[in-house]
């Protein structure tokens, strides 16, 4: 089940139609109250969330979902008319797993939804350890010096991929295709934003994620 919270009826109908055309079960809401009621009864596998909503801002909803243990790991895609780089960074910092600016292509939204759902099912490997950092896919947990670090699904997957491939340099396009599961080369800044938030959340360990000028990024295993 996919929940779509969007107050614009035409966009809500478009998204629900696109999902149903792909045999994806979905339920739409145009206000936070009805959305919260549904969340209390059944948790979805993914949420598509608008930012500019009546009564409660979408970022506020996003923040409280990510603060609760039972909803923290539900992947969330933001749909927003606020398409500046600052707005995208803010959404990712609040815990969104992806961010799509309006107007958007229904086909691209479907591709991103499928990629996120596919990635949720692919975290099947043992714990990864690098120095004082431990990544546990089964518990969806990161610990640094024994302290838990909260990451979004995409941040978690990006870090896991880099930890599985230490000291290898990957271009932004490669990371988009491998971690996101599809190509959207015009959005390579998405990688930069996720890398920046990862570095900040990982504190001193974040310095291990190095920028390789003119190429991309790598995780240094030997600092």
Q: How many extended strands?
A: 12
**Main beta-sheet strand count, sense and barrel state:** 5 strands, parallel
Structural class: alpha/beta
- Radius of gyration equals 17 Å
Shape: globular
Helix/strand order = EHEHEHEHEHEEEEHEHHEE
List the helices and strands and how they pair.
Layout: E1 2-5, H1 9-21, E2 26-29, H2 32-41, E3 46-50, H3 58-67, E4 76-80, H4 85-93, E5 98-101, H5 106-120, E6 128-130, E7 133-136, E8 141-144, E9 147-149, H6 153-164, E10 170-171, H7 172-180, H8 189-201, E11 209-212, E12 216-219
Parallel strand pairs: 1-2, 1-3, 3-4, 4-5
Antiparallel strand pairs: 6-7, 7-8, 8-9, 10-12, 11-12
Helix pairs in contact: 1-5, 4-8, 6-8
Structure in a nutshell:
The chain contains eight helices and twelve strands. By secondary structure, the chain is of the alpha/beta class. The protein has two domains: 120 residues, Rossmann fold, CATH 3.40.50; 97 residues, Arc Repressor Mutant, subunit A.
What does this structure look like?
With 223 residues, the chain is α/β, with parallel strands linked by helices. It has 2 domains: 2-121, Response regulator (Rossmann fold), CATH 3.40.50; 123-219, Winged helix-like DNA-binding domain superfamily/Winged helix DNA-binding domain (Arc Repressor Mutant, subunit A). The protein is 41% helix and 21% strand. The chain contains 8 helices and 12 strands. The strands form 3 sheets. It has a 5-stranded parallel beta sheet, sandwiched between helices. A 4-stranded antiparallel beta sheet has the order 6-7-8-9, covered by helices on one side. The protein has a 3-stranded antiparallel beta sheet with strand order 10-12-11. Helix 6 (153-164) crosses helix 8 (189-201). The longest helix is centred in the middle third of the chain and has 15 residues, at 106-120. The mean pLDDT is 87.
